[in-house]
Every structure is written in C-alpha cells, then in structure tokens.
Amino acid sequence: MNIKSLLFGSAAALIAVSGACAADAVVVAEPEPAEYVKICDVYGAGYFYIPGTETCLRIGGYVRYDVGVGDAGSFDGVNHVPDSMGEDDHSTYWKNARFNLKTWTGQETELGTLKTYTETRFNFGNSFGDYANQATTNDSRNNWQARNTGITLNFAWIQLGGLRVGKDDPAFDTFIGYAGNVINDTIVPYGGFDSNVVQYYFDLGNGLSGVVSLEEGSGSAGPTGVPPFTYISSGYDTIDSYVPHVVGGVKYTQGWGAITGVAAYDSTFEEYAGKVRLDVNASSALSLFLMAGYGTDKNIDRNFYKQWGGNWTVWGGGTYKFNEKTSFNLQVSADDDKNYGVAANLAYDVVPGFTVTAEVDYNHDGKFGQIDNRNWVGATKENSVGGLLRFQRDF
Q1: Which residues form the signal peptide (predicted)?
Q2: In this predicted model, what pLDDT tens digit does every residue of 44-61 receive, in sequence order?
Q3: Cα angle vertex 250, ends 249, 251, to 5°?
C-alpha cells in the first residue's frame, strides 16, 4: 500500500508541475482602458466631443415621405398623365421620399464661438403639376415618373462670433422668419432662397439684435425638393457684377413675442423690398404671427427678394397646440396681384421623433390665363385645391 501511495503521489505531482509550466507559457495582455465618446452639453442635446479635439459635433436629420393629390397647379398632384400606351388622360399622386443629413459643430475660441452647420438632401420622387403643359422634350415630359431627383446642398456655413460665411438662405427670410408652420408656405412667396452670404449678426442687448448680409442670390425662385409653386423666371436672380445684394434687419424680442423688420436691395435690377413682422405668444398653447411686405417694381415685376405679385403682400396665421402630441397650423396670404392662398394642417406626434401631418391647400391665381411672368407653370385652373400627407422621422 505504501508503494502504491508513493506512485500515485508522484504522478499527481508530475501532472501538477506540468500544468503549472503550461500556465506559465500563456501571456495575457493587460486590458487597455476604452476611450468612450464624451458628451458635450455646452451647445445643447446631442453633441459629443470629437476624440482628441475640443470640437463638439452633432449629427442629425430626418427621413420623410410625402404623398400629394390635387388640381393641376396646386403643387399637390400630377395631372393629365398618359397611360402606358401614351393615350387617355389621368391624374396621379405626387410622391417624394427624402433623406436629410445635418451636422453641427461648436468650439470655444479666444475670438468667440466657432460654429458650422450643413444640410444635405437626397430625394426620390416625381414632379407635381400639369404634365400636358410641360416642355415637349422627352426628359421633361417624363418628369411625372418616379426617379432619383438629385442631391442638393441646402446649407453649409461657418460662423465665428457674429460673422457667418457660406451657403445659407437669405437673411431676408432667416432673420425675420419663414411664413408659418404649414408645409406649403409659399403659395404667395415671401422671398428667394439659397445664396452664398457674408453676414454679421449683432447682439445689442435688452432683446435687441440685428444683421447685415451681403448676398449673391441664386437662380431658384423657391426651396429645392419641396412642393411650392414653380414660377417662370422673369430675370436673373444671381448678381452679374461685383456689387452684391444687401440685406439689413433689426429685431426686438421679449417674452410676449417679437417685432422684426428687414430691408433688401437687389443690385442686379436696382430694386428694393422690405418686410415687417409681429409675433405674439398669446398663451402657452397659441402663437400668432402677422407679416407684411412691400417692394418696388420700376425695372422688373419681381426680383430675388420681391417674389410676390404687385407691390404689397401680407401673410398671417399661427399654431394652436391641443396637447403635447397634436397641433393645428394655419397660414393665409394675399398679394397686390390678387393671388390668394390658404394652407392648414394637423400635425400629430405618434411617438417622440415621428410625426404625421395632413395638410389642405387652396390657391387663387389672380392672373390666371394671362401670358406674363406671374403665371404658375402648369396651372390649368383659376382656383386650385390640393392635399398633402407627410410622414417624418426626425433624429
């Protein structure tokens, strides 16, 4: 028994020594600390520090799907479309799917806050309006068919302190504000969109602020990728000399709302335009606005800033929040050429970040049937009605 015990003990010791040697041969690396993204709360929610820098970055945007129906000229449907045999006469939906990508950056410097903003849009859909009145080329006459409709750079600017340079909408629109929370807010247009700008924003204290903007203009009479009316251009909206378009504005903001005024000079046609606006926070649920515009037309009927008909124009409306999820938005508009518009919608937040909006639009064309620079492209009725259903996921 002693010999057997000695043999078993020796074997166990040998196995233990072998196991210890094998374990010593395995080298386990020390775990390195993970470099987690650091939250930046200086500029609001959603920002984080770019690793290794002091720059805060936010990435966002939305995915949107629009479906529109309506009369020709209402910008909410496609009318007089041929069938697959090229015959008969149909009307069909206007549809557009969009992916919108936005970026924001912010960084504190000895000269103030350094910021950037970009917005790029990718669209797939068809063209609204009257197929029968489109140009006769094969490409344009097939625009009612769904297709990729291009990529647009809508915003790309840099701002240091009060100085902003880059691609933006004109201060004639951004500083005073767009015309309400309806989808189709340009039934009676309130200014040109898209421009290279050099701007300076002033904070004068006690609720007073101002802006001076030197602008290039662009060849577009409306925002890209959304369904406003499409106009026949009456001239060149981009500067044709070294003299820029000039916009100036001043704003007084308090808890009850704001009063804003902007004035613009179109250097191409030497025309002037201005707008004044009153915003009122009537209650926690109701906000109202009234905006009026006036422009000269000694050289041309409309310019980059005075896109409306005649000399004067007015827009009004507001937003009423029934609860945290549901709101009603309204805009009415009219101009000197007897163009009238009404847009109303109901927006419902299904869940946070996902909104469904149903809108009805009405347009009266004051110069219907006249051959001039004010007619809508494809308009076949003096009075048009359309509807739009929008699904949008913001992130």
Answers
A1: 1-22
A2: 999 999 999 999 999 999
A3: 130
Banded pLDDT at 290 (limits 50, 70, 90): very high
Per-range mean pLDDT, top range of 22-36, 137-151, 188-202 = 188-202
Number of other CB atoms surrounding residue 102 within 10 Å = 18
Continuous segment of H or E residues that includes residue 25: helix 2-25
Tell whether the torsion through CA atoms of 66, 67, 73 and 78 is positive or negative: positive
**Strand spans (E) along the chain:** 48-49, 56-70, 77-81, 90-109, 112-125, 129-130, 147-160, 163-168, 195-205, 208-215, 245-254, 257-266, 271-281, 286-295, 312-321, 326-335, 340-351, 354-364, 383-394
CA distance 277 to 177: 9
* Domains parsed from the chain with CATH numbers: 14-394 (2.40.160.10)
Return the structure tokens found at 43.
């500029």
Helix (H, G, I), strand (E, B) or coil at 193: coil
**Gap between the Cα atoms of 117 and 268, Å rounded:** 29
The two tokens of residue 142 are 């097939």
Place of tokens 């347009």: 363
Instruction: Tell me the average pLDDT across 372-387.
Output: 63
Which range scores top for mean pLDDT: 21-25, 137-141, 156-160? 156-160
Provide the H-helix boundaries in 165-296.
171-174
Tell me which residue has tokens 């004044």: 276
CA distances, 170 to each of 141, 250, 272, 322 (Å): 32, 15, 14, 33
- How high is the mean pLDDT of the chain? 85
The token duo for 107 is 């960084």
- pLDDT tens digits, one per residue of 332-349: 999 999 999 999 999 999
- Closest of 264, 235, 237 to residue 249, by C-alpha: 264
Where do we find the tokens 């929610």?
45
Cα–Cα distance, 187 to 201 (Å, whole number): 30
* Distance in angstroms (rounded) separating the CA atoms of residues 321 and 308: 30
**Tens digit of each residue's pLDDT (9 = 90 or more) over 100-138:** 999 999 999 999 999 999 999 999 998 776 665 555 455
Burial class (CB in 10 A: 0-12, 13-18, 19+), 43: middle
Nearest-angstrom CA–CA distance, 104 and 100: 14
